[in-house]
Design brief:
Elements (H helix, E strand, L loop, with lengths): L2 H14 L9 E6 L4 H12 L2 E3 L12 E6 H8 L5 E6 L3 E6 L16 E2 L6 E2 L7 E5 H6 L5 H6 L4 E7 L2 E6 L15 E5 L2 E2 L15 E6 L13 E6 L9 E9 L3 E11 L4 E12 L3 E3 L5 E2 L2 E15 L2 E14 L4 E3 L10 E2 L6 E17 L2 E19 L12 E21 L6 E24 L5 E26 L3 E22 L7 E24 L2 E12 L10 H5 L5 E14 L4 E13 L2 E6 L4 E6 L2 E16 L2 E16 L19 E12 L4 E12 L2 E2 L9 E2 L2 E12 L4 E8 L7 E5 L5 E4 L4 E9 L1
Parallel strand pairs: 2-5, 11-14, 18-23
Antiparallel strand pairs: 1-3, 4-5, 6-7, 8-13, 9-10, 11-12, 13-14, 15-16, 15-46, 16-17, 17-20, 18-19, 20-21, 21-24, 22-45, 24-25, 25-26, 26-27, 27-28, 28-29, 29-30, 30-31, 31-32, 32-33, 33-36, 34-35, 36-37, 37-38, 38-39, 39-42, 40-41, 42-43, 43-46, 44-45
Length: 785
């Protein structure tokens, strides 16, 4: 057991001291009988709890609550006779719903609502006219969703893969790009606690202690801080509740010498302050090995810390101060040769290079919520910083085995800091509608050093050695507004728009150690772009369990500079923004007394000036350019059914048809008519969760999931050597919880069929492949206080 694991466990144990159980503190309430929505709002202010009650009718009257009592007892008294009940209570968030009639036992079997922030308000996912997939905290834990790749298995339209450790591929409905130049934007954003993560090298990490995961699909050009054309992945860590002690701890061991320990604790600091601390540590031996060096690859060594302080200086003002830190290290990817040097084992590499990946990142934020007389004002100030470095071979075998050509080896180091400020105003929910408006400002300073060396076949002589020292500073400014108007006949019209202005300045120092004529320096390059991205949504909700919508949305990904440029002219010519217009029709429905949920959407996304990376056959330079036009069409289906209180079933399906309408490489190939990269035509999943009572002994719990990903290309060229074949993966978990559910013990297996599935193929030098995780298994013990 290594020192880092012991250190992490020590830190986590200190955090666990916060989780000691204690009696809930009582509060003094003075809430007269009134419209139930107003009463719930008053209760939230006086209790310090976050209460979400989707679809509450304002003509229903609450019960009066006066005196000093336990907060949850007060809430039950408040909603008595209103037709509401507590649907879920996670400690920091209580969700209410319409109570089923007790005379019908089947009504006790209802699906859980997940609260999302897709429209910058707390809403049930079913009430939001956007195609999204949301996972609650209990689903994240039960299905062991520990990475974005795990999330993608159960999410139609989302594909998460990897080129190497520092270059994950995140695609929504085929929207992605494959270039890694510093300062270049991605079509899919990852947001944690309202803060945008500016670079993909920092966007994939261990998921633990989350309140929810939300995958929003299609352009999000109106309400989110960084305008994107593909979608947004929202990670929400929740917040501690006032007056309540709470805690959770999880420890596990498994194959490949897995050691995992997570802990979180909430502690009240008086009536108007609460602290949450969380820690996670994970170590694991590698899935692969370089047989020339004997070094492990695709191993794991990560430590994560998080702290949140929640304050309520007055009844109408709340502050949430947060900070987090994480450190990750591993031995790089197992890129296995399929040709020269191959030993036939797909889990070994023949690189002969001491690969390594190291990353440190941290963030800090201050979120202020002021319930002003006219509405709620929210201020979000945050800073995120990351530094990552990776040594890897771009060629799939050592120069020792190459009959000709070169082995390319890379050292890629980046450092990114992003300071952002958002201020928004959310109006009350008036009878005729409501709106959200605000401003967003960000300043990003990013630098990167990329050293690429070519080692000659057989001898290893250095034939090329180029260092590019890159820097791009980005300033982004936006103003936005989005509102809904309630129309007759159960129609709602949502209109929104965002004006975004992006300004980038770039510099590059290129040092060619072999050929001095290839060296050059350029600085103070600048360009700016602006765009208005509107959205319009018409929603029809004739009954609480049926919602149909049609939307038109525009998204924008800013332009930039090719900071990997081999010539000065290729650097000084910026590439243009990417624009997407999306048309979508969808329905969100619940049937059989909320036991059956069926959501579906069909969409069409039209690209203008799609950003692509390709080799220009005329200039002989790798270039970022705009590939004229492209189209993505498809459909998505999500089904959930709870036939009994102890059994939940779900299924998803995504169909995707993408094409480059016009894409011709200067002096080279014509890609017009090819499919977009990272866009499998079919993607599906099946899942089940079990929570079966065992008389007075406790509960038998379990989950099973099966996911299928169709064949797809990794780029625009439609090269059969860069095609990933279809594959299906199966994950299983079984366990036990006693009555009271204070602890649980589980055994699990991922990729139960030990299916070899490719993350990325390579044609650089030789044919090679990088496989995803093999079969892994383990046992986990967790407890809650």
């Amino acid at each position: 057991m290594n020192r880092k694991y012991l250190l992490g466990c020590g830190v986590a144990a200190a955090v666990a001291s916060l989780a000691a159980p204690a009696a809930a503190q009582e509060r003094t309430f003075d809430i007269p009988a009134q419209a139930v929505d107003q009463a719930i709002s008053a209760f939230g202010r006086q209790s310090g709890l976050q209460i979400v009650a989707p679809g509450v009718e304002d003509e229903v009257r609450s019960q009066p609550v006066q005196g000093r009592m336990d907060a949850r007892a007060a809430l039950r008294r408040l909603i008595a006779g209103t037709g509401l009940e507590i649907a879920s209570d996670s400690g920091d968030l209580i969700v209410l719903r319409r109570a089923p009639a007790p005379a019908d036992p089947a009504r006790a079997t209802t699906l859980q609502d997940v609260i999302v922030t897709a429209q910058k308000r707390d809403e049930a996912a079913q009430d939001v006219p956007i195609a999204l997939t949301a996972f609650s905290a209990s689903t994240v834990e039960s299905f062991r969703l520990e990475s974005l790749r795990d999330v993608s298995r159960l999410t139609p339209g989302l594909l998460v893969s990897a080129f190497n450790q520092s270059s994950p591929t995140i695609a929504v409905r085929g929207a992605t790009n494959t270039f890694t130049q510093i300062g270049a934007n991605k079509p899919v954003a990852v947001v944690i606690d309202d803060l945008f993560i500016p670079r993909n090298s920092a966007a994939t990490f261990e998921l633990y202690g989350l309140n929810s995961i939300q995958v929003l699909k299609g352009p999000q050009g109106t309400l989110f801080g960084r305008n994107v054309t593909g979608g947004v992945i929202v990670l929400d860590t929740g917040k501690p509740a006032f007056g309540d002690w709470a805690g959770a701890v999880r420890a596990g061991v498994g194959s490949h010498d897995l050691r995992q320990f997570d802990v979180s604790g909430d502690a009240p600091l008086g009536e108007n302050a609460a602290l949450r601390l969380a820690a996670s540590v994970k170590t694991r031996e590698g899935y692969g090995q370089d047989r020339l060096t004997g070094r492990a690859q695709d191993d794991a060594d990560s430590t994560n810390l998080r702290a949140q302080l929640r304050l309520r200086p007055s009844e109408d003002l709340e502050a949430l101060i947060g900070a987090d830190y994480s450190a990750d290290h591993n031995g790089g990817r197992t890129l296995s040769s399929k040709a020269a040097g191959s030993d036939g084992d797909r889990r070994t590499s023949e690189l002969g290079l001491a690969q390594a990946f190291d990353r440190n990142q941290w963030g800090a934020s201050a979120r202020l919520y002021w319930d002003a007389p006219a509405g709620q004002v929210t201020s979000i100030t945050g800073y995120r910083w990351s530094q990552s470095g990776e040594d890897y071979s771009g060629t799939g075998t050592s120069y020792l085995f190459l009959p000709a050509g070169v082995q390319t080896v890379n050292r890629d180091v980046d450092e990114v800091g992003l300071l952002s400020q958002e201020i928004r105003f959310a109006s009350p929910k008036w009878g005729w509608g409501d709106f959200v408006a605000g401003v967003y400002l960000s300043s990003e300073d990013a630098s990167r050093q990329l050293r690429v060396r070519n080692l000659a076949a057989r001898t290893g002589r250095v034939t090329s050695d180029v260092l590019t020292d890159q820097a791009v500073d980005t300033r982004s400014y936006a103003i936005f507004a989005d509102g809904v108007v309630h129309l007759p006949a159960h129609f709602d019209l949502t209109l929104g728009a965002r004006y975004t202005f992006d300004e980038k300045s770039a510099s590059l120092r290129r040092i060619d150690a072999i050929n001095g004529a290839g060296s050059f320096t350029a600085s103070d390059l600048s360009a700016d772009w602006s765009e208005i991205t509107p959205r319009a949504v018409l929603t029809w909700s004739p009954t609480p369990g049926f919602r149909a919508y049609g939307s038109v949305t525009k998204g924008y990904t800013a332009g930039g500079f090719n900071t990997d440029a081999a010539t000065l002219s290729a650097l000084t010519t910026p590439f243009d923004p990417e624009i997407v217009t999306s048309h979508e029709l969808g329905v969100k429905t619940q049937w059989l007394d909320d036991r059956l949920r069926l959501n579906a959407a069909v969409f069409r996304m039209d690209y203008e000036d799609k950003q692509e990376l390709f080799f220009n056959s005329l200039t002989r330079i790798l270039t970022i350019t705009n590939a004229s036009q492209a189209t993505a069409e498809g459909a998505e289906l999500e089904l959930a059914y709870r036939p009994a209180p102890w059994l939940g079933l779900s299924a998803t399906y995504g169909y995707l048809d993408t094409v480059y309408d016009a894409f011709v490489i200067p002096g080279g190939a014509t890609y017009t008519g090819n499919s977009l990269g990272s866009s499998p035509r079919n993607k599906a999943s099946l899942a089940a969760d079990l929570d079966l009572p065992l008389a007075d002994a406790g509960y038998l719990i379990g989950t099973a999931s099966w996911s299928y990903t169709d064949t797809y290309n990794t780029g625009a060229a439609a090269d059969p050597n860069l095609q990933i074949d279809d594959y299906a993966l199966t994950n299983l978990m079984v366990g036990f919880e006693p009555r009271g559910r204070r602890w649980r013990a589980t055994a699990w297996v991922k990729n139960a069929g030990d299916v070899d599935h490719v993350l990325t193929p390579s044609t650089q030098g030789v044919l090679a492949e990088y496989l995803g995780e093999p079969r892994t298994w383990g046992v986990t013990l967790s407890a809650r206080y």
